[in-house]
Amino acid sequence: xxxxxxxxxxxxxxxxxxxxxxxxxxxxxxxxxxxxxxxxxxxxxxxxxxxxxxxxxxxxxxxxxxxxxxxxxxxxxxxxxxxxxxxxxxxxxxxxxxxxxxxxxxxxxxxxxxxxxxxxxxxxxxxxxxxxxxxxxxxxxxxxxxxxxxxxxxxxxxxxxxxxxxxxxxxxxxxxxxxxxxxxxxxxxxxxxxxxxxxxxxxxxxxxxxxxxxxxxxxxxxxxxxxxxxxxxxxxxxxxxxxxxxxxxxxxxxxxxxxxxxxxxxxxxxxxxxxxxxxxxxxxxxxxxxxxxxxxxxxxxxxxxxxxxxxxxxxxxxxxxxxxxxxxxxxxx
Length: 333
What we know:
The protein is an alpha/beta fold. The chain is built from 9 helices and 7 strands; from the N terminus they run βββαααβαβααβααβα. It has helices at residues 79-86, 103-118, 121-124, 134-144, 200-206, 231-246, 259-266, 275-282, 322-330, and strands at residues 4-5, 22-26, 67-74, 127-130, 179-181, 252-257, 290-297. The protein has a 7-stranded mixed sheet with strand order 1-2-7-3-6-4-5. This is Phosphoglycerate mutase-like protein 1.
C-alpha cells in the first residue's frame, strides 16, 4: 500500500485504483514582511491551459473532514542517548534496558510543555498516543499531562512520584486528553536492550491513568535478542500505525515515539516534493522535537461526516447558476 506526504507545493498524482490511501502534509505558514498587510495576488491572462501548468507549484485541496492533525514528538534525552553518543557499542549494554530520561531530558520536557501551552496546542489535542517504553511514557506525561498531582484527588495520576528514577513529583490526569499506549509506534525492535520494554504489570502502578488495554502481551514478546528489525519492516509497521490512527474518531492527536520509528516511517513520504519539503518531513528528529503534520484520507478510508459543511437550499427554491438561467431564457424555457 502506497502512502504519500504532501505540502502546499507538491506534484499530485492522478486518482487511480492504485493511488495512496493517505497523505501527510506539513502544516504550512506564509511568510510576510508585514503580517497586518493583506497579500495581493496578481492574476495575468495566459493562453496556457491548466493541463499545461506545472502542478508542482499547485496547492492540494481536500475536504476538511478527511483530514487529521498529527503532532509528532520524539522522546526527550534518555540515558541510552548519552552512552550511545560516547560509544555506539554501549547500545548493547543490559544496563540501558528500557532507558529512562536524564535530568537534561526532563528540562527538554519542561521546555516543550511550556511551548504547547503558550501556543494553545494543549487545548486542541484530543488524544495522546505513546510508545510503551519508559522514556516515551515519561516524555508524554511530562509534556501533555496536568499540573502536579495532590493527594486526596479522586482520579489516578498519570505518573506517580519518582517513577523511573525521575526524581519528579506525581503528574495529574485532570484536564488532560486520554493517554493510550500502542506497540505499533515502538522503536527499532531487537538486539538493543534500551528498546526492550518492561512488563505492562510493572508500568501500570507507575502510570496509573495511561490506558494499556490495547497491548496484548504483558511481557515484551516483540523484542528479540538476536534479530534487529529491518528498516523496511519499521516502515511497514509505521504504515499500519497511520492507518490505525486514521480510523480513530479524534481529529487532533499527539504521538510520542522514537527517532528510528519516525525516520523510517516518514522517509516513505515526500519523494514528489521539493527537496527542502522532503527534508522537513523526514530529517531525523532531535530529542523532544515536535513537528505537526496533516494526514489526508483520499480513498474513503474513513467515514466521519463533515461537521461544518452546510447543504444549502434551506428553504428550497430555484437556484440556477447564471449561465444555466441565461441558456434557458434564450431557449424560451
